[in-house]
Amino acid sequence: MSVRLTQGAIEALFKGSEVNNPVLQLLNIRQITNASGPPRFRLMMSDGQHSWSSFLLATQLNHLPEGDLLVPNCVCKLKKTITNTLSDGRIVVIVMDIEILQSPEETGGKIGNPTPYNPEGKMSSSSTTVPAPPPPAAVPGPSNQSNSIYSPPRGCGRGFVGKSPMKTSPVKASPSKFSPMKGSPVKASPSKFSPMKGSPMKTSPSKFSPSKFSPMKAGSASPGSSTKVIPIAQLNPYQSKWTIRARVTNKSSIRNWSNSKGEGKLFSFEIVDESGEIRITAFNKEVDKFFPLLEQGKVYYISKATLKAANKQYTTLKNDYEMTLHAHSSIVPCDDGQGIPAVHCDFVPIAELENRDKDAIIDVIGVCKSAEDVSRITTKNSREVSKRALNLIDTTGKVVAVTLWGEEAEKFDGSGQPVVAIKGARLSDFGGRSLSALFSSTVMVNPDIPEAFRLRAWYDQGGFALDSQSLTETRSVGSGTKMNWKALSDVKTEHMGHGEKADYFSCVATVLYMRKENCLYQACPSADCNKKVIDQQNGLYRCEKCNRDFPNFKYRLLLSANLADFGDNQWVTCFQETAEVLLVFQKANFTTHTFKNRVKLETYNDESRVKVTVMEVQPVDHREYSRRLLSNIRKLAR
Asked: Model confidence over 58-70: pLDDT tens digits?
């Protein structure tokens, strides 16, 4: 099979013109040692008319020369390139994606008689030097996690298939005409907007229409600048000048930090455009300068920030880079937000969570079937935080528990079973499969996106009646043990609580009777201690746990109640929190609830008895309860 080289492509690439998948021949390849990272490979390519040695292979393609696949005299198609101008004015073309069309044996040697390309029109030796690439190591190029699709600009491509695009002779001009200061150092070819082959990411349902990407807008200049606007996915550390136009999707509060180097303050925000998303952080003076300017949901022109490798410990975005603002950074509001998406999510079906790795960062969307009340827990560093658990279901029929924290937990309203989308939740294997929102996560209730409308319609038209299956095991409050649905008779027949550790179970039961005698006790006034105090008869009350005497105490509820279900009854103890829930009902007797209980065999005055303590009281979800009963019937009928 004979192939034709794309004549004129070398000159076009040097000038930064549009070149659609040029076919070139590799004449020579040389390894450049890089002390700060993986080696780089410099290529000399030929279009049959000219040869040029200012090509650099992106490090993610190093396996091609290392595996003897990319060797001299092979013919290649350059599927993705970036033409960059270095700080000293020299031009280099970074090869981001390449396809080998013919091996050297099939080619049979050098094609044509190419001469070294010289923009000044002078003949030069082929030993023209290309500077070693600046550190750091890799040029992974655009983050191809995005599922947005782009259309190449129309009416501006020149083809370059089989003939030279220039009918005239090579331009003879002074070097100043080719000065990199006269134009943009980075010019995108149509192929740059195509996702690379072999992307591991599955197609996201949140795919934006190609028509939303306007080539004219992407190439328009930002206010007061001659630098063209480029997509976020095209950013890399080898670019000297760039401007992006993007929407702020998430903005953190100002946080203070202190370490051995000193102290200061910072805030971060996330932005999105049609091609992808990236995280930006500002420190100290830049916090005062930019924090009041930025508003979530607004669109801005951003330029002159420092691009560096992303620290995955602090970001959940699918981008290999992140930005840091400095004194010369520029952020200008943009009134035209057309074509810029409001959110950029790669939703994973809930059923697929079973196949994902622990601690993976996931975007998920589902209908909130149920939501627990807000509770407060104390962290290891003695800080109290609010938490709330949601149960989300999607069209796969699977349910997963999601934990919200802090302000998100407190302000969440689960009434009406809203559609909830969470961007950047962490996947855990705690109790099967569960999700937890992070500080950097974005929680959206009834978002204005197509996936939410489809999910709402599915749930209202019959999804609510689906016999769903939860990926998360129900667990007791404050314990790490698995909760099982049990009948009260099982407490005796299965000898629950007789082991070394306490057992936990859930049941649906009815309150038959509550003892009014001794329903209060004098408790330690300390915030984290509820132990009973001893009256010292001298105006002081002693807490054995705290090993302190207090001048006062606080009364706490200690309620004994008798519960019954279809097969048995059981005396249980309810402390302050659970007792308050029951006493909310004016006539608590003969009301039915879902009880989560702790059962343990205890010895008092040389007498052993099983003590059942109610850990949580919830209203009966009759729909879920009925489904569980039907499931049990089906199991018994097998």
From this structure: 877 888 888 888 9
Phi, psi of 75 (to 5 degrees): -105, 130
Amino acid 114: pLDDT? 92
CA distances from 243 to 95, 225, 227 (A): 22, 9, 6
Three-state secondary-structure class, residue 395: coil
8 φ/ψ sector (left φ>0, alpha ψ -120 to 50, else beta): left
Q: Choose among 383, 15, 328: nearest CA to 166.
A: 15
pTM of the model: 0.42
Phi-psi domain of 88 (left: phi exceeds 0; alpha: psi -120 through 50; beta: other)? alpha
CA-to-CA distance for 396 and 415, rounded, in angstroms?
Answer: 23
Q: For residues 108 and 206, what is the distance between their CA atoms, to the nearest angstrom?
A: 48
Three state DSSP letters for 313-349: CCCCCCCCEEEECCCCCEEEECCCCCCCCCCCCCECC
Which residues are CB-neighbours of 434 under 8 A, at least 6 positions away? 400, 401, 402, 403, 427, 428, 471, 472
Q: Using a CB cutoff of 8 Å and minimum separation of 24, what contacts does 120-127 make?
A: 120/172, 120/173, 120/174, 120/175, 121/170, 121/171, 121/172, 121/173, 126/44, 126/51, 126/53
> How many other C-beta atoms lie within 10 A of the C-beta of residue 569?
15
How far is the C-alpha of 49 from the C-alpha of 579, rounded, in Å? 88
112: left (phi > 0), else alpha (psi -120 to 50), else beta?
Answer: left
